[in-house]
Design a protein that fits this description.
Layout: H1 7-23, H2 26-35, H3 39-47, H4 66-78, H5 85-99, H6 105-111, E1 116-119, E2 131-135, E3 138-147, E4 153-157, E5 163-167, E6 173-178, E7 187-196, E8 198-201, H7 204-239, E9 241-242, E10 245-246, H8 251-280, H9 282-311, H10 322-334, H11 339-349
Parallel strand pairs: 1-4
Antiparallel strand pairs: 2-3, 3-7, 4-5, 5-8, 6-7, 9-10
Helix pairs in contact: 1-3, 1-4, 4-7, 4-8, 5-6, 5-7, 7-8, 7-9, 7-10, 8-9, 9-10, 9-11
Length: about 350
């Protein structure tokens, strides 16, 4: 039995990697941090068919699975790519495939005419009294840290764990840009005041599965970002000289780079397995997603710290730009559940705590 990527999956990875290597280099990321416009990058990904990655071929999509989605998420993290991939190409299609597989929205997602923001943070616990409630068919309340400031629709959850789709231009919708460490994924506070919305699901299991999927994709993103930070640290260590020789020849620096690589590499198989479980092993998917994101969030944090230390003072400069990867890893760690929260959830799933 062979465990690894298929030829088709490798071709997918190669083609997306080549596109990002030309269209999402660090200068382009820095430009996005200034103007917030990722239209050219997202259109390029749409032209490659990634908007319809999880959408069935009968609806005009590619009809692939979560393993392929995780591979793309890893590449996006590796290039700190600004894009609405998580909400638009993964979470919204996943929910629609489950509750309304004939929805016309699936075709719009494939065509790139819909961008979906993710307003599910309150599903992990309300902050500062934030919550969405449904009264008389209208939504009221607010959601914090909604990803994608340029969204045309928002996927939100109410206090009863029902999922809704809210048009960004609907009556009563107000957004306020929030400041976070990650400049590659702008977030907003979404306020709803008697806002009409389309209820997608009243089944809490649909919301919980969406959270599982989101956690696996964020973990894959962290895997890619941490992998890039290791590569940058190794390259820099080979170029930076102290006492007349590259710092890569110093035993301490060698150990730092080797330990980063040794700690991260097993996480790749973990990501692949968690994505596979989403497709094929529903009984294991939730527990695996919780363990994965909790573990890789901690690994990513340590690698971000160590890679920055290898760079010395240069690691903190905008010239090198290492902070974009550092902050993306930090943002991923917090979204859709911190390691502490996810370990508690995993313990409950296993009956280890009440």
């Amino acid at each position: 039995m062979e465990f690894g990527l298929s030829e088709e999956q490798n071709l997918l990875v190669d083609s997306v990697h080549k596109f990002l290597d030309t269209s999402a280099l660090l200068p382009r990321v820095k430009k996005f941090a200034e103007d917030g416009n990722d239209a050219d990058i997202w259109q390029g990904l749409i032209d490659m068919g990634l908007g319809g990655l999880l959408i069935p071929e009968t609806q005009g999509g590619v009809g692939l699975g979560f393993v392929e989605a995780a591979l793309i998420a890893e590449l996006l993290g590796k290039h700190v790519t600004p894009s609405p991939f998580l909400g638009t190409a993964v979470l919204l299609p996943s929910v629609l495939n489950a509750v309304d597989p004939d929805s016309s929205l699936l075709g719009e997602i494939t065509a790139g005419t819909v961008r979906c923001g993710i307003g599910l943070s309150e599903a992990n616990g309300a902050r500062l009294g934030a919550a969405i409630v449904q009264r008389g068919g209208k939504l009221n309340g607010r959601a914090l840290f909604v990803i994608d400031a340029a969204a045309t629709v928002y996927l939100v959850a109410d206090a009863k764990q029902c999922l809704y789709l809210v048009d960004a231009k609907a009556n009563g919708v107000t957004t306020w840009r929030l400041s976070t460490v990650d400049a590659t994924r702008p977030v907003v506070e979404l306020t709803l005041n008697n806002t009409p919305a389309r209820r997608l699901s009243s089944d809490p299991e649909v919301l919980l599965r969406a959270l599982d999927i989101g956690r696996v994709m964020l973990a894959a993103d962290t895997l890619g970002a941490a992998s890039n930070m290791i590569e940058q640290a190794v390259i820099y260590a080979g170029q930076r000289e102290q006492f007349g020789r590259p710092i890569a020849t110093f035993q301490a620096v060698k150990h730092m780079c080797a330990e980063m690589a040794a700690e991260l590499e097993p996480c790749r198989a973990f990501v692949w397995y968690a994505a596979h479980a989403l497709n094929e092993l529903p009984g294991e998917a939730r527990l695996t997603a919780c363990h994965l994101k909790a573990h890789i969030s901690e690994v990513g944090k340590r690698i971000a710290k160590t890679a920055t230390e290898v760079h010395g003072g240069m690691g903190f400069t905008d010239l090198v730009g290492l902070h974009y990867w550092y902050k993306r890893i930090g943002f991923n760690r917090q979204v859709l559940g911190t390691p502490e929260h996810l370990r508690e959830q995993a313990a409950k799933l296993q009956g280890l705590v009440a």
